[in-house]
Amino acid sequence: MNWFYFASPSTFYRLAGWVAPWAFAAAAILAAAGLYMGLVVAPTDAQQGEVYRVIFIHVPAAWMSMFLYLVMACYAALSLTFNTRLGAMMARALAPTGAMFTFVALWTGAFWGRPTWGTYWAWDARMVSELVLLFLYFGFMALANAFEDPRRGDRAASLLALIGVVNLPIIYFSVQWWNTLHQGSTVKFTGTSMHVTMLWGMLLMAFACWMYAMGATLVRARAIILERERRTRWARAL
Amino acid sequence: MNHQYYLWMSYGMTAIAIAVEIATLALRRARALRAIEAERDLEAQD
């Protein structure tokens, strides 16, 4: 397969236009199934009661916040290494959705923390490193739009995205490296102690968030392509 | 405060965040299409 064919903005614009509605449809179906599983089927937690059901949005949002940053950094690296236009556009398209998921993870974490820990916020390593991730997303967006020449903005923001990658292992391992208020990982590659319906509810919601992020990013990437390519013949022919 | 409040605040804010993102996506696309329309008009004038 010739991947460079898809790196052309005009080709990618059409491909993204075809994929995005399917991604949104998949997100809606998966979210409906995940919410049913999480809010109706999954049993009440023996210790936390009903409030543990925040997990079905908090954990998928936190996973997506880190995953999207990693994907954004990969596109930033592609853009810097090969000077690809599409790589920079995709990095820009991912940032607002990544920031949204980071905000949701912090917000839902606060509303889970209050009834279980007795506080909305603590200066805990996991929470602070997640907050730093939100600031990295904001910094990326601000830097990308701070230049009159968008290509200069792309380069500066891509560099910041690559530097910020160092925060991802800090977030992930913070609960092991430091004695934190935040609990350790419940779901590991080696297995989980969760009830099977709780696990399925969470996984379905994680896939729903993934599909939503794909759809939103592709729609935003299409808008960015139109903004940048508006003077080209193919864009004017739309 | 009962647990429902914390659940509603969590799921409610998530719904609002997604709604805001979808609205901004639609606005951005509409603005980009208007810019192309303007380019087309400029070309027609030339």
Topology:
The complex is a heterodimer of chains A (238) and B (46).
Chain A: H1 3-6, H2 9-41, H3 55-82, H4 85-117, H5 125-144, H6 150-164, H7 167-177, E1 187-188, E2 191-192, H8 196-229, H9 233-236
Antiparallel strand pairs in A: 1-2
Helix pairs in contact in A: 2-8, 3-4, 3-6, 3-8, 4-5, 4-6, 4-8, 5-6, 5-7
Chain B: H1 3-45
Q: How would you describe this structure to a colleague?
A:
- The complex is a heterodimer of chains A (238) and B (46).
- Chain A contains 9 helices and 2 strands, in the order αααααααββαα.
- With 238 residues, chain A is mostly helical.
- The two termini of chain A are 27 Å apart.
- The mean pLDDT of chain A is 93.
- Chain B has 46 residues and is an all-alpha fold.
- Chain B has one helix at 3-45.
- The longest helix of chain B has 43 residues, at 3-45.
- Chain B is rod-shaped, with a radius of gyration of 20 Å.
- The mean pLDDT of chain B is 91.
How are the strands of the largest sheet of chain A arranged? 1-2
Structural class of chain B comes to mainly alpha
Total domains of chain A: 1
Low-confidence blocks of residues of chain B = none
Please state the CA-atom Rg of chain B, rounded to the nearest Å. Answer: 20 Å
Tally of DSSP helical segments of chain A:
9
User: By helix and strand content of chain A, what is the structural category?
Assistant: mainly alpha
Please report the number of helical segments of chain B.
1
Mean pLDDT score of chain B: 91
How would a textbook summarize the main sheet of chain B?
none
Helix and strand sequence of chain B? H
Fraction of residues in β-strands of chain A: under 5%
The percentage helix of chain A is: over 70%
